[in-house]
Protein 1
Amino acid sequence: MAGIVIGGVQKRFGDFQALRGVSLAVAPGEFVALVGPSGCGKTTLMRIVAGIERQDAGTIGIGGRDVGGLRAADRDVAMVFQSYALYPHLTVAENIAVPLTMRRLSAWQRLPLLGRFWPGARAARAAIAADAAQAARSLGLGAMLDRRPAQLSGGQRQRVALARAIVRSPRAFLMDEPLSNLDAALRVQTRREIVEIHRRVGATTLYVTHDQSEALTMADRVAVMLAGEILQVDSPARIYADPADLRVASFIGSPRINTLAAALRQDGAVTVAGTPMGLRASGEAGEATLALRPEDVRLDAHGPLAVQAEHLEFLGESTLLHARHAVLGTPIALRLPPGAAAPEGTFRLGFAPQRALVFGPDGRRRAAQALEAAHV
Amino acid sequence: MSETMALARPRLGAGGEALAGLMLCLPATLAYLLLLLLPTLAAVLLAFTDYELGAPALAWIGLGNFEELLGDQGFRIALRNTLVYVSIVAPVSIAGALALALLIEAAARGRALFRAVFFLPVVSLPVAMATAWQYLLHPTIGPVNAVLAQFGVAGPAWLTSSDTVLLSLAFIGIWEAIGFNLVLFLAGLTAIPRELHQAAEVDGVTSAWERFRLVTWPLLGPTTLFVVTITMIRAVRVFDSVAVLTQGGPNRASEVLLYTMYTEGFTFFRLGYSAAITLVFLAIVLALMLLQTKVLDKRVHYG
Ligand SMILES: Nc1ncnc2c1ncn2[C@@H]1O[C@H](COP(=O)(O)OP(=O)(O)OP(=O)(O)O)[C@@H](O)[C@H]1O
Ligand SMILES: [Mg+2]
């Protein structure tokens, strides 16, 4: 199995810079999810890796060789398109067999009528049909080999597209939002199937999605992309708990992370509206942002944040309490533990200082640590 | 409940509404009856009579006209010439239009220009164009033979020799049909999702021929079927160029179905006989349409 190395790829469409120097390395056998909001350039990057689109600058390496000059057909990757891109006139079995037919048969053996009688064609075609049927069965499509794509449900088409990709052993799999057209239940099921296939085949996979929960649950590592740039590549746990950039922190996590305008004093202490937060951060004094995940904020009569209650949002397993900072007016949300009484009016909130995230005015993360109580 | 009652608009009563509907349908229905259905019915009825224009009476002769058709040398020549004409014009103009459409689609620029150039014959007046062709193909002063003479070839009398007249007419027919077919094919090509071509590339398709076979040709199926049917029907209908350029001559070498119908009806005033030829023509067109809708349609739609 081979890896993918993307080095400083740039792409512009007219005046619009879609990719601004993207670099990303996917290790052999690794599953990397590329996540980002709509229009940030995920599909563009994927198509450049596949060889469908040309980059303006930068290099693409697959399996240790530079594939910059190679056509899509010669890059030896399999791609699952956002829209499936199944051949509507071919049956499920024929669709899945296409990559094999194109690679295992000679041009003569593929000829319309004559090809059937070309030496070796019969045996090769039988082997291809067997492999295609095998791939179809492994995705539960065994009973619908003779159907056309139009006779399949969305989820089944999805799996045909996947089967067409896994029927070969390509150097890398590229999947472009393959689950975006499925309903919630089917999405969770197919998500599991894709992870299962990846475990079984162990293929290098680059998986594009704009759904962060998909990225966090499936991938070995997650690459967060925004406006044509990759901001951070890390394990799902670290992307969530240890974001390097305020934009990553804001994009990952639902409900969204709370952000409060803060200030960094000369001695490094972090204050919000003049109140010390019990934290010290590195870097230059001045403006900063304090970010707190809703589950890290708790009701605390002695906490440093004074807030005004706004409304409650019932989520099922927990309740979200929306409030506003009493001075700044910034919204703050927190998860109430089950059965907790919802406060009203003005009250105070606290948080564990080691869970708080501090970002500089440029949005970069600042190292922070809890202050001793005596210091405050 | 009471609220919906109050909101409901005042009603005409079921009868009034139906009447209004009928009135609205009336103009279209009348036009259809007067302009299409009645003339067709009249033609069908006439085909079974010996009616001649200006004759004081007519008699019902059953299949008499059709019996005469079977033995009519002129009709047989016309039928044969029409078939020859269709079997040249349809394949060449369809294959040519497809090839041109693929080339234009692949071209980086100038699509609009090419489309306009090839579509020109379709919007031009057939009779005026026929006159232009008469000049172009003129044996002595025509540019075509002038060019041939440059290469030392003595060009034939294109429109006045019985060896070449049908070929020349077919060439003009191709020239007229190709632009129309081209535009249809171009529309069909743009409707093919680009992702399918890209998927084919990722699947290992490297040659243009393989891509055509795997994606373009099958997905163009509905378009091709429509183009084939419409081209054949339009070719069977050939009349203008024959009437202007050759009048069926020389020596009936360019006699075609509709021209025979025209001469029988309006030169010899044998309207009954002419109507019988019209019915044969209608039968051919209907058969082509049935072939499209009942047989081939199922094989090109993958829904
Ligand atoms: N062929 C093109 N011509 C011009 N602009 C393009 C073209 N393809 C993409 N873009 C632009 O490039 C940007 C990135 O597009 P891309 O398709 O990569 O987004 P994406 O991250 O895949 O979004 P989504 O999640 O909606 O699929 C978009 O702003 C888009 O408008
Ligand atoms: Mg996309």
Protein 2
Amino acid sequence: MTAETILEIENIELTYKGSIQALRGLSLKVPKGQIVALLGSNGAGKSSTLKAVSNLLSLENGELTAGRIRFNGKDTAGLSPHALVRSGLFHVMEGRRIFEDLTVEENLVAATYALTGRGGAPADFEQVYDYFPRLKERRHNRAGYLSGGEQQMLAIGRALVARPSLILLDEPSLGLSPLLVEEIFTIIAHINRETGVSMLLVEQNAAVALAISQFGYIMENGRIQLDGPTERLMADDDVREFYLGQSGGAENRSFRDIKHYKRRKRWLS
Amino acid sequence: MSGDLLFFIEISLAGLGSGALLALTALAFVLIYKATRVVNLAVSEVLMLGGYLFFAFAAGLGLSAWVALPLSILGGGLLGGIVERGVIRPMLGENPISVFMVTVGLGSILVGMAELIWGAEPKSLPAFISTTPLFLGEAYVSRKIAVAFVVAGVTISVFLALFRFWRGGVALRATATDQAAAYSCGINVPGVFSVAWIVGCATAAGAGVLLGAIGGISTTMGVFGLSALVVVIVGGLDSILGALIGGLALGLIQSWASTYLGGEYTSVVTFGLLIVAMMIRPYGLFGTHEIERL
Ligand SMILES: Nc1ncnc2c1ncn2[C@@H]1O[C@H](COP(=O)(O)OP(=O)(O)OP(=O)(O)O)[C@@H](O)[C@H]1O
Ligand SMILES: [Mg+2]
């Protein structure tokens, strides 16, 4: 039995400014309620994939030239970005992108626009503060003065306010200390389990991403190179070596570096 | 109270009155700039148009001032909405200089149209503010200027409060900080653009009616907008508070300069101030710049 699919990307091709091709026939699926990891090195096209899904591409002169994307069974082509958010698809962008001049609470207020036209209960900031007590202490502070980790919490907090059915999370670990990464990923896993929200999680930090996801895709050069359930990916030798930074034995470090480089080239070609 | 001091107080009050109008016009620039990052030079001509619309409704159609005033404000807003949808929105993302030049062109078109319809010679507006003078203690103030001051002051305070406490104010500030992030929060960003242009141009038109009530209207009254532009450049293009304080300050300074130095010094002082302020703080006295992380 296959779970219901909340997001389905089929063979999309993406070009920036009419010439730079960032995605070349990429397909992936997110089953309802699951966390799916999308991994890959710098410039692989991970963020571009998310922007294609949330329709934020047009702001950067990007365009889908082929393929289609379905959210909850409906084609997203032609929907304005805010309409898509209001229908339950929330994109937590790379680099956090909180409103620095606004207070923490005003940032959450801004996210209440995602609830427009949905009826239902009013926005619940307490839920955000329960997951991230530190934000509550700083609710009246200017968001620009928060630490990097707190800003990431705020970015995720805005998504919580929107009560989406799918969250696209772009590199939540970016620039955070290992301890903080651990803390934030634990909370992400809790949010998924407790609210049932599906997630497409983009990461360079494969170890933490795979630790909380059920399925993973690995992309290079605008395409998916490898995919599978997380356990299988974690057992894969290449994945272990390139993405998890583990290797079989106690080889000499410099030898390992050379081998790493060679195999990496093979991968990229 | 000595005569000199009383005189100083009177010209200062007059300066605050015209300063409040400067602040109101500056607010139009700020609203539009904040949302769309467009310096809309045509604000000056929308101000002029506001004066002429009032003239057309009140003198031409013989409507009561209390009907003509809201109609003129509405007319300004309508024009702003049409320009935003028809001209500015399709140009978003283009070179800011091109967009700026389009607003300059638009201003010239408005002046030309006003001259075609109403002729080039200055007119006075039907009186709707009583001319009986007002005394604050011993100091004389023109009632028109006092009314303009109160109206402008109340309007700006309302805007400040809305920006701070109304959800729409948060949406505008969010859009001003980061458009993509605003979209990602579900904010209807193009809708914010429209509202900012409509409200900004309506404000300018309203300021035009007040200005016309004090000094009459002419197709060149848009130069007043140039002083307001100095206010926003000095006060910070994206700062409402800057518009308020800057407007009042410039009104005072202009009034002092023209009284004690002579009328020809008004623009020398105004633009001298602009240059000095730019050298000290290029992003404006109250404008935002990158926040430094503590
Ligand atoms: N706005 C843009 N205009 C032109 N090219 C772009 C734009 N954004 C991304 N690209 C290009 O598209 C390719 C994929 O970029 P993308 O940001 O999707 O990579 P990524 O996998 O998210 O990388 P990272 O891990 O560094 O964030 C890169 O070659 C990049 O240079
Ligand atoms: Mg990226």
